[in-house]
Write a structure and sequence with these properties.
The chain is mainly alpha-helical. Helices cover 71% and strands 1% of the residues. It has 15 helices and 2 strands.
Length: 336
């Protein structure tokens, strides 16, 4: 980076550098990349570049001169050398403007000026959305800010869903899933369970992508396992349990189970049954066994329905055995 920076300094020191303004702007683009990597790029420098590019874009006479003299060697859009035209040159200027606004967002984000960063990314999406490279990156960075800096999981998920739909092949969709997984590990406190489960459900419902559906289901179940627990180590927060019973029910709906594998279906049903069992511990009993064991009747039926679904599908032997054993225990305890 530093060696390239030295070469660019020599270029800008040349008094003829401004004679060909398009080459000057392309060199300025490289200079912007280097300064960002070295941590010295400022928002003011980018704004100056934006102003100069807009002025250049409006200078019809200069654009015609560059095209006529074939000094335009193509920009990010790779305009044909054989047939350069003003429209093509202007389109390359627009793409460079898109990059400048994107970099303005990156610099603002590095300075933790979140509102300013979001505004810069919005400018890319609103004005230059046709340039996929910078539109996809802006959408991802905006979602990341909402996820990690503003703690707005619902908003971040909406943006990432848009990213999955529009730019699935960009590689950013996979990175967004990793970011969601990392954020869930760190930030999902009991008070956030309902928000996270709703976000997972939204990802699952609106996505046509099988991988994203499976990811949303997996994330919901990992979250549930943390709060439902195993071996009687679980939360006793009523709101958390209510969020879990509501947030897992959608995973067991027959119309959706075809989108995830049999083992995941079994896992979701066993987790939901465990959530119903925990909910039973927190409610007044409506049915009492002669040994003094109590259960709300409605929850026993819901729990057993989960076990029945596990036993009716081609799940693993371990899942089948657990469902069969727990259902038999329930039937013995309740006498029903």
């Amino acid at each position: 980076w530093r060696r390239a920076d030295g070469l660019l300094d020599a270029f800008f020191a040349n008094r003829h550098a401004l004679d060909d303004r398009w080459t000057y702007f392309r060199a300025g683009e490289l200079k912007m990349d280097i300064d960002f990597e070295l941590g010295r790029l400022t928002a003011d420098a980018i704004r100056r570049q934006i102003g100069q590019l807009r002025e250049f874009n409006d200078s019809g006479e200069e654009l015609r001169r560059i095209v006529a003299s074939r000094e335009f060697y193509g920009g990010p859009g790779m305009i044909s050398l054989e047939n350069p035209d003003i429209a093509g040159l202007k389109e390359s200027v627009q793409e460079l403007l898109a990059k400048c606004h994107y970099m303005l967002g990156r610099v603002a984000g590095r300075g933790r000026r979140w509102d300013e960063a979001v505004a810069a990314y919005d400018a890319v999406l609103d004005r230059y959305g046709r340039f996929d490279l910078y539109a996809s990156r802006s959408l991802y960075q905006k979602g990341l800010i909402y996820l990690t800096a503003m703690n707005r999981v619902d908003r971040a998920v909406d943006l990432f869903i848009d990213l999955f739909r529009r730019y699935d092949g960009s590689g950013l969709a996979d990175q967004a899933m990793e970011d969601l997984r990392d954020a869930e590990r760190v930030a999902a406190r009991p008070s956030e369970v309902a928000v996270w489960l709703k976000a997972c459900r939204r990802m699952f419902r609106v996505s046509d992508d099988r991988d994203l559906s499976r990811f949303a289901a997996h994330l919901a179940m990992v979250l549930a396992e943390r709060h439902v627990g195993k071996d009687d180590r679980y939360t006793r927060d009523r709101e958390v349990i209510a969020a879990l019973t509501d947030g897992l029910a959608w995973l067991t709906a027959p119309k959706d189970t075809a989108r995830i594998g049999a083992d995941d279906i079994a896992r979701a049903n066993l987790l939901l049954a465990r959530a119903y069992r925990l909910e039973s511990d927190l409610r007044p009993a409506s049915i009492r066994h002669r040994y003094g064991v109590t259960y709300p009747e409605a929850n026993v039926r819901k729990e057993n329905a989960c076990y029945s679904r596990v036993m009716s599908i081609d799940a693993s032997a371990a899942a089948f055995d657990e469902a069969q054993w727990r259902m038999a225990v329930n039937l013995a305890l309740t006498g029903s």
